[in-house]
Amino acid sequence: MKSIKTVLNTYLFKTGLDVGVNQQQAVNIWPTAVGKKIAENTTAQDVEHGVLIVHVASPIWAQELQFQKKEVLFKINAALGKKTIKDIRFV
Question: Region 21-48: what's the mean pLDDT?
Fold first, then answer.
């Protein structure tokens, strides 16, 4: 008999829903992946077609994070275990 985890993972993979589930995990791990200082000034809101939407506290934070985008994107995908997020939009 297969475990429920195995059955669910198989179902998600076969239906293509695993991509959406993996993308949504980025919202959940945002504070851990980016660290305390960035997490205090941002909130990951949603993922749309592989683009993580992040609300920032101020335009200054948006600009700073724009400069750090490659590094933040790497951290998120590393925490997820694969390249799930294609881009980040700071709003």
Answer: 89
